[in-house]
Amino acid sequence: MHCRNTLLKLLACGLAAWMAGPRPCSAELPIERVPPVAVPAVDDLSDEALFAHLPAVPSVRAQRDQSYWSFQVLPEGLMYKSYLAGVKEPRFAAQWVKDREGRWLWDVALGGRVGIVRYGTTDALDPQGWQIDMEGAAFPRLDLHNKMDLVVCDYRFGIPFTHAIGRHHYKIGYYHISSHLGDEWMIRHPEIQRINYTRDSMVMGYSFYWRPEWRLYAETAYAMGTGECTEPWEFQFGVEYSPAQPTGPRPVPFMAINGHLREEVDYGGNVVVESGWQWRGQTGHLFRMGVQCNVGKSDQFEFYDQYESKVGFGLWYDY
What we know:
Blueprint: H1 2-19, H2 60-64, E1 70-73, E2 92-99, E3 104-120, E4 129-143, E5 149-165, E6 168-181, H3 183-188, E7 198-211, E8 214-226, E9 233-241, E10 252-262, E11 268-280, E12 286-297, E13 307-318
């Protein structure tokens, strides 16, 4: 038994000397300049502390960290992020805008998009792999000139399946959207007849990150089920500048342009431009404030064929 313990201790000390690094040859460095390797005496080591003095070796998984793929439930971050200037993207937002008739409107978004399950990396800022998300939001419009009456409210729900590999990000999934006039607005304007605007669509999107802060994207959707005045096809495209790294307390500028075309208005639609300042957190959550200009067909689909021109101030928060 004593021989076995002595042999183990000698092996441990030899391993410690080997991990401390080889001695350079005398041609490269005089022997007296080489610092001695601290090797504990064999008799001073107890069985419990036999390997305690050895340097820690990090696990392979810890070394790989951000590149390690695994299954995750409720992961942090999104592989296909919401379009910054997309007015029907699920998020928390508020825009105070003035239209061409001089009315002040309060356009609101109450919702968000979150990850449900992922097979991929654990990086929250730029995750790679495969992910299933869930999204939902309500988009009410309030009339600031008439006691903040509810004019109209659109509702969206969807389940996107997303994939990210390098600079290429993809989305395919289902979403439902419908539009409903507000009770107060219908009472105030009995001559207006509501329509059953609804669409249940399959959507495909592609984003290319030219640089980490620059994004180009395009999306198409086909409605398998439609309501009144609704045609199947719609298209979105745009460009964004949004620094991808956490900002800390100091904001950085952002810019976004989005175009949305719909078949029911002969492939017309609207263009939205936003610019301002943003803050990004460690987990990728994004808060923005700035100006918005929206020109074209109404983004409230009860008024889908009416022309609007709006400009104002907005706040936006994305998960």
